[in-house]
Amino acid sequence: MQFLLDKTDGPARLGRVFTDHGVFHTPAFMPVGTQGTVKAIQPRELEEIGAEIILGNTYHLYLRPGTEILEQSGGLHKFNGWKKPILTDSGGFQVFSLSELRKISEEGVQFRSHLDGSTHFFTPENVVDTQRSIGSDIMMVLDECTPYPSTFEYAKRSGELTLRWAERCLNRFRETEGLYGYTQALFGIVQGSTFPELRKFSANGLVGLEFDGYAIGGLAVGEPTEAMYEMISVCTEILPENKPRYLMGVGTPENLLEAIERGIDMFDCVMPTRNGRNAMLFTSHGNLNITNAQFKNDFEPVDAKCGCYTCQSFSRAYVSHLFRAKEILGLQLATIHNLAFYQTLMKEARHAIACGEFAQWKKQRLFNQEEVTEYI
Amino acid sequence: MQFLLDKTDGPARLGRVFTDHGVFHTPAFMPVGTQGTVKAIQPRELEEIGAEIILGNTYHLYLRPGTEILEQSGGLHKFNGWKKPILTDSGGFQVFSLSELRKISEEGVQFRSHLDGSTHFFTPENVVDTQRSIGSDIMMVLDECTPYPSTFEYAKRSGELTLRWAERCLNRFRETEGLYGYTQALFGIVQGSTFPELRKFSANGLVGLEFDGYAIGGLAVGEPTEAMYEMISVCTEILPENKPRYLMGVGTPENLLEAIERGIDMFDCVMPTRNGRNAMLFTSHGNLNITNAQFKNDFEPVDAKCGCYTCQSFSRAYVSHLFRAKEILGLQLATIHNLAFYQTLMKEARHAIACGEFAQWKKQRLFNQEEVTEYI
Fold first, then answer.
1. What domain count does chain A have?
2. Domain limits for position A320
3. Model ipTM over 0.90
């Protein structure tokens, strides 16, 4: 994997990440493909809307279909038909949010499957092995996503454990190879809750280990937005210029633009897909709940400025009807549009950085959006 | 609407139906778009698999979104983005199968909505009006779908009522015009349960009224398959050569081929879409329940002979995984494949008729299919 930083505009960065499955342009938004599919959308449609990399969840893929079937298939790309880059998380986040009876120790974390209650054990080493079986282009280290709020003491111990785990992941990564004839990269994850001192400790520790890229985890977990932005800046000031920076699990369009302005290159979030399935549509002039009565006979497109299949082919009235009638097509069209909205946002952000006009563009973009959100 | 009979091969017919929204080739299978969408598939995908006409359900569309919104939209084609021909049923079938407290009289049928319990009244005249609002290319008369089994007496009275309603529909049809600048056609419906004498009475009565085409209703409602085939022959021997013939709500691939051999031109059925959503996939060598354990690590396509997106892009193992994981994409891929299977079946049937080899082709097709269905 190679990262080229093409341009900066203040801390905002325009770049390209080259993998054996092709290049993706940063700032990049990665649609979330939890169980080996981005929900309610086909790989060819993801390409159509401009997605260049998707995310897979190691926890889910490990439990189902399992590494044996993924290996027999020749890796996740061959299994799910997505030929471009894939990033996988380590599974740690889902262990802490979904599974039962988890028990964390120096060695790793024991948990029970949310599917059948069976007991499993994740270690820094075996999550690398699992991601080797998955064959993702970018793998993540095992971390503890420090809960918010945490005491300084808890966050410190948790951050230190995450750092030790990161080193063990890196060792396993260096002593193994990809299973399918292409190379994989490994990113470290900065933790430290909302304590600048701990974030600095974590970031500096990881930088010393020399990962292919660096993620910032443990944000957007309930802390005030301003604290999130502050932590991002604390981290990006330390992280090396020549490696991509990935803010995990974030966020709203506004969050993304604020984070780009603070030097973030990569994002993932379930918001566009999950909110879409709940009838919430993003538009360039605010968010719509498409089931609202006012859209029953609104024959305009969801977003007149959007070039996606949904907006080019159907009216708000039709999408509204599909949601009222509980039709699967409604979920499909909402997913296509919301992901297209996020991809377009990233494309425009990249263009603004290329032109050296990021701050100005961001202000205008957020202004347009807030204005009409109020009226709706 | 114009029907051209291009070739016959015994009673089997090859033809074309010309409408203001384009031509469709017969024998034709119409995917069912109950609530203004064929479930889990996009209009562009329906075109991709070769569908040339779809069906809409007047009962559902009348209740939701309702004729007011359909009229404001400029008709169903503009509302749902399907630019090719649409046929609508009259709503009668759903009144009898879905609604509550229905009360049938000479005037029409009163019923309660299955959605909110509200009371409505369908008459031969107002179902034509509703289909004018929908703007379907082919409209159907209001009929009573005679239940099976029925006594001769009941079937006789029911068939006579359906015939009187057909004439009233035709009168309303002739004294009104399409709302959107294109023409619409009206088909009569033969009833008569499994009584040849009643089928003949009904068919002869309708032929005297001169409809644009003729449907055969009240079959595949529980009667023995042989009785269904016999009734089809009784009807097609009477129905005029120069008008299309539509067998309503049928059926399995075998049913379709047997009916084509008896002179049927058009079909609709929820089987490919509904069964697909229940993990049952049609293939050229038998049906698969894709959730069966044997498919977990079967990396062949669903049907190696099929050219659809599902078969060209994914394995049985992946589709099986999607169903196990309850992913919407599984429903999408199964729907695309099953409808493609039906469209391919019709395409091959048309080719066989064109070559004068229908009987021989049909035998081989059904043989291939039965052989492997047993082993699976």
1. 2
2. 276-371
3. yes
